[in-house]
Design goal:
The structure holds two protein chains of two kinds. Chain A is of the alpha/beta class. Chain A has one domain: Rossmann fold (3-Layer(aba) Sandwich), CATH 3.40.50. Chain A is 31% helix and 20% strand. In chain A, strands 3-4-2-1-7-8-9 form a seven-stranded parallel sheet, sandwiched between helices. In chain A, strands 5-6 form a two-stranded antiparallel ribbon. The longest helix of chain A is centred in the middle third of the chain and has 12 residues. Chain B is of the alpha/beta class. Chain B has two domains: 66 residues, no CATH class; 191 residues, 3-Layer(aba) Sandwich (Rossmann fold), CATH 3.40.50.150. Helices cover 41% and strands 18% of the residues of chain B. In chain B, α1 runs parallel beside α3 and α3 packs across α4. Classes of the chains: A alpha/beta, B alpha/beta. Chains A and B meet through β5, β6 and α3 of A and α2 of B.
Chain lengths: 196, 283
């Protein structure tokens, strides 16, 4: 095990999936999160595949906590936010590190939200909170079910507020979600967790 | 303290041990999250209910084991994956390769060969193909057979043609192919200097004195410890001044001997071996 002490450990692992409209939604969500916090956030966002992503830099300039593009075998640290790279799946390992693959797309997506959610749930069970934001396909619905089966919680952006409703609605149809709310409500809920 | 989160993880641990003992293939240093996913897909494919059942059968059934290797190792690739990477190779590495009378290249983990032929096209346009030998290796014999044949479905052709242009090559990708009804065949001229051969990065040894090693999107499947070991293998296989090219999510940051390398283009993960000191002697 690579983990040296419990203080390096996140309290909860918050995994976020989004697609169409995701950049704007993430800007709002991240701006409403109060630093410092004890959880970690790992985000999969569908992006055009060949382009180099500058999202982590864009987000990092808006907030006072670290927003990083996920690196392979990087330790997930509390208080940090990690973002996927286009054309690579992003996975959570049991030792609390991130890993990447170029395995086939899932739901036509690479990175796939389902892959992130499932591996996070396998590794960290009831410590996982999955959040499904705006998106125009159903990626994330199966992964959310997996999160629930492993004892975690699932939050969904209110479809009325989402730029694209398909992704939130697919998750709501698939499972009993723990919370449906606006971006600021989701952030507030995380802030309450982050103090513990 | 429990080592694993889930009971399945104990089953997988036992399965990998048994496969190593029986067949000599060592998956124990592979990253667990993705390996687990692929093993569960394999169970579905084979209509096997539980991992212990797979473990029982894989000891006794060579055919099942062959299919396991075929499905569980990753074989996803494409022509000129990351076109800007190839532009960088052309700009930074080709001028150095021109100074050698004969060029030895190792493409480790070549899967079905798309990137091997991409490199061959690039060398061809630089006038270097005739004095190059490319050793293209993979752990998986069935994908090597496909790579050797050089026959590809035309379903991704338009994307590959775009990649070819974006990679900065002249003419059209189809100049290097013979077109069939729903497939394309790589021109035999590209194939004549490529040697396809089985090689397992985990258990096999150093491979010649290479001027260039390509190993892209293979290390991400390994734990950090195994990555270290395999990069050590590459380091020993590289000529002084030789180049190591990795995938864009792969780096030498955690490698003990990273001081032996200079990043030629850090963004595109192009490294040159510029020192013989600082090698790890752990292997």
């Amino acid at each position: 095990m690579l983990i040296s002490s419990d203080s390096d450990r996140f309290s909860r692992l918050v995994v976020v999936g989004t697609s169409w409209g995701g950049i704007d939604a993430l800007k709002v969500l991240l701006k409403h999160i109060n630093a410092p916090f004890t959880f970690s956030v790992v985000i999969v966002i569908h992006q055009e595949r060949q382009k180099k992503s500058h999202l982590s830099k864009i987000f990092a300039e808006m907030v006072s906590f670290p927003v990083l593009e996920a690196e392979d075998k990087q330790q997930i640290l509390p208080g940090n936010v990690y973002i996927s790279t286009p054309n690579y799946h992003l996975l959570v390992e049991q030792d609390g590190t991130l890993s990447h693959t170029v395995d086939r797309p899932v739901n036509f997506c690479r990175p796939s939200v389902d892959v992130l959610f499932q591996t996070a749930a396998d590794a960290f069970g009831k410590r996982v909170i999955a959040i499904v934001l705006t998106g125009a396909n159903q990626d994330g619905a199966n992964g959310s079910k997996w999160v629930k089966q492993r004892g975690g919680q699932v939050f969904v952006q209110d479809p009325k507020e989402a730029e694209a409703k398909v992704m939130p609605l697919a998750t709501i149809a698939n499972i009993d979600v723990d919370l449906i709310g606006s971006l600021s409500t989701l952030a507030l809920t995380l802030n309450n967790l982050g103090r513990s | 303290m429990l080592k694993y989160q889930n009971d399945e993880d104990y089953d997988i641990h036992a399965l990998l041990e048994v496969i190593y003992l029986k067949w000599g293939y060592d998956f124990r240093g592979y990253s667990k999250a993705s390996l687990t996913r692929r093993i569960f897909f394999f169970l579905q494919e084979e209509r096997i209910d539980r991992i212990p059942d797979l473990q029982f059968r894989i000891v006794r059934d060579r055919g099942l084991f062959s299919r396991f290797i075929k499905d569980v190792t990753v074989n996803v690739t494409e022509m000129f994956r990351d076109p800007s990477f190839y532009r960088s190779v052309k700009k930074h590495i080709v001028p150095q390769l021109e100074t050698y009378p004969h060029i030895k290249i190792w493409h480790a983990g070549c899967a079905t060969g798309e990137e091997v032929y991409s490199l061959a096209m690039l060398l061809d346009q630089a006038g270097l193909l005739d004095r190059a030998t490319i050793y293209a290796t993979d752990i998986n014999r069935s994908v090597l057979d496909r790579a050797k044949k050089g026959i590809y479905s035309d379903s991704h052709l338009s994307q590959y043609q775009q990649n070819f242009k974006d990679a900065g090559l002249n003419g059209d990708l189809l100049d290097y192919f013979e077109k069939g009804y729903d497939h394309v065949i790589v021109d035999s001229r590209l194939r004549k200097n490529i040697v396809f051969t089985e090689h397992d990065l985990v258990i096999d040894h150093v491979f010649g004195e290479m001027q260039l090693i390509f190993c892209r999107n293979v290390l991400i499947y390994f734990t950090r410890e195994l990555q270290d070991k395999v990069i050590g293998l590459f380091t020993e296989s590289l000529d002084f001044g030789g180049y190591l090219c990795l995938g864009i999510k792969e780096s030498l940051d955690f490698f003990d001997g990273r001081a032996m390398f200079t990043a030629v283009d850090a963004d595109h993960r192009l490294f040159q071996k510029t020192s013989n000191k600082g090698s790890s002697d752990k292997r």
